[in-house]
Amino acid sequence: MIPRAIRPFLAFPQALRAAGHPAAPEQVQSFLAAVSLLGPGSIRDIRRAAHAIFGPGPDRSEEFDEIFDIIFLGRTFFAPAEGEVEELPESYDAGEFDLLPEPDEEDPSGAEATALERLFARSLAAGDPDAMLRAFARALPAALPRRRSRRMSPGKGPLPDPARAFREMMRRDGEISRLPSRRRRMRQRRVLMLLDVSGSMKSGTEDALRLAHRLMQAGERVEVFTLGTRLTRVSRALKHRNPDQALMLASGLVADWDGGTRLGEALAVFLSVPRFASFARGALTIILSDGLERGGPEALTAAVSRLAGLSWSVLWLSPLAADPAYRPETAAMQAIAPLLDRLGDGSRPDRIAREILDFAKGARR
Question: Which PANTHER family match (predicted)?
Answer without folding.
Answer: BLL5662 PROTEIN, BLL5662 PROTEIN-RELATED
